[in-house]
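Mods, move this if it's the wrong board.
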Amino acid sequence: MSILILLIIAVAVLFGVRSVRMQVITRPAFTFFKKVLPPLSSTEKEAMEAGDVWWEGELFRGKPDWNKLHGYAKPTLTPEEQSFLDNQVQTALTMIDDFDIVHNRKDLPPELWEYFKKEGFFALIIPKKYGGREFSAYANSTIVATIATRSVSAAVTVMVPNSLGPGELLTHYGTQEQKDRWLPSLAVGKELPCFALTGPEAGSDAGAIPDIGVVCRQEFEGEETLGISLTWNKRYITLAPVATVLGLAFQMRDPDKLLGDKKNLGITCALIPTDHVGVEIGRRHNPLMMAFMNGTTSGKDVFIPLDWIIGGPQYAGKGWRMLVECLSAGRGISLPALATASGHVTTKTTTAYSYVRQQFGMPIGNFEGVQEALARIIANTYQLEAARRLTTTGIDANVKPSVVTAIAKYHMTELGRDVLEDAMDIQSGKGIQLGPKNYLGHAFMANPISITVEGANILTRSLMIFGQGATRCHPYVLAEMEAAGMEDETAAVDRFDQLLLGHIGYATRNALSAFANALTGSRFSSSPVSGPTQKYYRDMNRISSSLAIMTDLSMLIMGGDLKRKEMISARMGDVLSQLYLASATLKFYEDNGRQHDDLPSVHYVMTERLHLAAKALEDAIRNFPSKIAGVLLKVLIFPLGNHFTAPSDKAAVELVKAMLKPSPARDRITFLCSEFEGDTGGIAEVEDAFLAKYEARDLYKKLKKAQRSGHIKSKLPMLELFEVALEKDIITDAEYQQLLEADKKRLAAINVNDFEKL
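Not the wrong board. Structure tokens:
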């Protein structure tokens, strides 16, 4: 007992007496922290400063405020936005023949180009005072996704001017003169923009762009002008072949110090008419046969005046921050919209196809092998729609959640790939035979484009999500780094001392929380709701605190090496990502009004998210470079082992059975794949067959019963089966006609296009 009292007194003195604490704890910790401090490049520092911390910050800190999540506004469309979807977008869909666009024209038809321009499809983000639509991020996403259900090429054509590019950069940073000059013309499609960032030597490492602009004086429009001599070589630039105005990112140099004392000003963005002397628009690329315009641009010693810099001369060297701020928003809208469209299409068509396609005398949707893949499609689509809504909610709240949008871009495009692969497996011959009726093939072919652009997925996962999130979202680390960088060491140590006490308390709380929740199965953890989803909030509290304590130990032990340990960094990023996706799922369920028929999807998705988060934690612990720390983490996080399992077979079967019929739950995750009169793309055809066969379901049961009882032979061709049933008065003439019509639609839906010659 006396030893315990002495120990308590010692700890109290050590932490409570400032002079003792400073000497024994703070100064050694400060020295160690500076030594292991991960070095930040200027571009990394700007990227961190440019983004905002949003919901991911709660998930990273070990104790999420779930009421904050529930308090975020439910994304909705304004009457104007809904009208645009109901009218202009629906009209555009009737003008799309994607097979003709991709295989014959290799371009959009002229009338569709003109309709997009005239109706403001390229002006969704431009303010109304300049003639734009000024729609929300959610509306922008919904419009792009709806178009993408019928044509990726058309969707990308609309998407790009409303993502990172001249329109967005001018809106946020342009001078008044630049806005007045360009935005009205961009709004009506008189000017078509492209933005040139990527080059042969700079892809994901956009900060290393080699394109150079040198400040100098040259003659421009008859007068000696202070400007920039530009040389660039860019590739993969969407809309470049048809663009009239080029946004260009380059490294700006001022060797003669004409603008000030700095010779290297940094990345800068300028706006250049493509008919300007020296601008070269090169040949087209062929991005996996998709027909959206994509190509090259270059220029050598092209002179432009300084006021062509977006934002004017005062924005020289500020281009990287501008790009990061705008890229984070675009990354959370555009590519996730394409991925979500893939989910809606595959769920709508594959549930329908699985119901109408028969093998061995029954719908293929009754086979468990098909159900396993179909359950993944349905659950992943629910997840995609949930993540789309939560991510655009953040953007519409005027935050720039760079980590969240990186999560959305990476995981949603990967989920888009997953749903397409599963759909192709189930629809098989229907999916692989291209033609006007094929609604999967082009999206399947195009998916790697989304995986690649706006930051390659491998690097987004291994470098960005945790690499930025660990520092940006941590409640203490970024402030500690700033303290370590202060020039006044006395002030730095004082500031570090204040932070250190809080950091120690934070880490202790998370360690105890992780351990206690692991021992009790999170039964005593808090939840903002009761009922069927309560357990998921409790388990997410446990995973969050586990991630927090593991992050602290990783930074402590690996320091600056952590960002080079990309596999561990990626796995820890996966934990954060799964928590974010799970949060989106629970928010979607709440926003839908806790619909009971959503629960099979929610249970499947949440079980999968928690399973993957726990697996990522377990794998990171198993590969932790310090074996002693690895053992400690395992004791804290999984003292009784990892019991988070993947969804059960029973859950998969229940989910699929609930979706192999028309229902509000099915409508909620297929509504982007809207129906319209005259749709010849195959989607309406398979849906019509599905509805017709479902309406006749009692007649099919009657026929099955007759076969089982021996009144009709068990193996007869479908049409002969109908005729025999009619002859034996098992069905009426009206029922016979209904079955004939349903089977006619079924055959049309499962058939594919053929050609005399290719």
